[in-house]
Design goal:
401 residues, mainly alpha, two-stranded antiparallel ribbon
């Protein structure tokens, strides 16, 4: 016999005894997995520090911070599958699901994109004014780009969340929003699979989609982006970003189903996953193709904390990580706007101590700003869309994703 922990109706973990032939089970629809919330926060922070760059890139985990986008995708696949795989059966279920998913992503996407355009243009105006008034020092008009004026196609694609689906030959407007576009259409694909297939066939489709997505991403990295020469072999965004998202998202969905069948030694798996990830960061430049294993390592880590037990889960469940996780979407979407103003200053700062001070200030301001956008944009508008979707009670775990 073995003892595992499940989430009771009172939202507390309680032990139950399983006989040897009994399958262990996760809390499927009854509550948020706090470790995932902390994991999302950590991923958002590393992506923000990756874009901060400069001397901070001396740390391998920051230099390879772009990989943490795949941790978002894996967690999202796990959470959405756990919450909705048995709830998408009718057209009404599909309508409610898509409205909720749209309402989770769209408001902050539009707000941050508009703010990004305004901030870019404000900086251009300020530099032009400095030059014209003789206050720009060494600045010349050629030192900065002109005003950012979105094209009609960019506006329409942003409003339809299609801008990350390979229709542009570059990142447009808020550069990190490509992943929001691809994730929304991964939700649509997931819902279509749930409505069309059941049981083992559905799992087979998950496998097929994950393998196909990851294979297409690897092909694009090697043959389109020539990443063995250019580096950052998994940094696939505007062109094959949907394949990258689908590969990792459905890997997360498979991880959820696997976690329902297999009991885990949380500490051992968390140690193995973290050691593997750290080792990957250190050898990524020397053996760039090894980064293709990053989604699998993230899936291992997600699996290892999925019961909210173990030393890594304890850290991720702590209050600072929970606050960071709550604001993770805002941290992710707002940091490019902050970088517009931080980057020119950080570029002129040298030395480990000064760079660390600027980086800490950047993170502190980002957390403050993300707290505001969560409170005034994300949370109220998500609840508004949820009301539109209907009053049918939905799983807490999905609403937090």
């Amino acid at each position: 016999m073995a003892t595992v922990f499940v989430l009771s109706a009172g939202m507390r973990w309680r032990p139950i005894t399983l006989h040897p032939n009994t399958r262990s089970s996760l809390p499927t629809n009854s509550g948020t997995i706090a470790s995932f919330e902390g994991g999302r926060g950590l991923a958002a922070l590393f992506v923000a520090l990756f874009h901060f760059g400069h001397d901070a890139n001396a740390l391998s985990v920051i230099r390879n911070g772009y990989l943490f986008v795949d941790l978002f995708f894996v967690i999202s696949g796990f959470v959405i599958c756990s919450a909705y795989s048995t709830r998408l059966e009718t057209a009404g279920d599909l309508r409610s699901f898509l409205i909720r998913r749209f309402g989770r992503l769209f408001p902050l996407l539009v707000f941050s994109t508009v703010l990004y355009v305004l901030a870019k243009n404000l900086l251009v105006w300020a530099k032009q004014e400095a030059v014209s008034r003789g206050l720009g020092g060494h600045l010349e008009r050629t030192d900065f780009a002109g005003y950012l004026v979105p094209e009609l196609g960019e506006i329409v694609s942003t409003l339809t969340l299609t801008h990350g689906m390979g229709i542009f030959d570059r990142l447009i407007l808020n550069p990190v929003s490509w992943s929001i576009s691809t994730e929304f259409y991964a939700y649509v694909l997931f819902a279509a699979v749930c409505l069309a297939f059941r049981g083992g066939i559905r799992l087979a489709v998950y496998v097929l989609l994950s393998v196909a997505g990851l294979a297409a991403t690897i092909w694009a990295a090697l043959h389109v982006h020539d990443c063995l020469q250019a580096g950052k072999c998994f940094d696939i965004t505007y062109d094959f970003g949907f394949a990258r998202c689908v590969g990792s998202f459905f890997l997360g969905a498979l991880t959820y189903h696997f976690s329902r069948q297999v009991r885990l030694n949380a500490n051992a798996l968390q140690f193995a996953g973290l050691v593997g990830l750290v080792a990957l960061f250190f050898v990524a430049e020397a053996w760039p193709m090894l980064v293709f294993a990053s989604p699998l390592l993230f899936a291992l880590l997600v699996f290892s904390v999925s019961q909210d037990t173990g030393f890594a889960a304890t850290v991720l469940k702590s209050k600072p990580f929970q606050i960071l996780g709550q604001r993770s979407y805002s941290v992710y979407m707002m940091h490019p706007i902050l970088m517009i103003f931080v980057e020119p200053f950080a570029r002129r700062v040298h030395g480990t101590v000064l760079i660390a001070v600027v980086a800490l200030a950047y993170v502190a301001i980002l957390l403050l700003v993300s707290g505001w956008t969560y409170k005034f944009i994300e949370d109220p508008l998500r609840k508004w869309f949820n009301r539109i979707a209907g009053n049918r009670r939905q799983p807490q775990v999905a609403m937090q994703s």
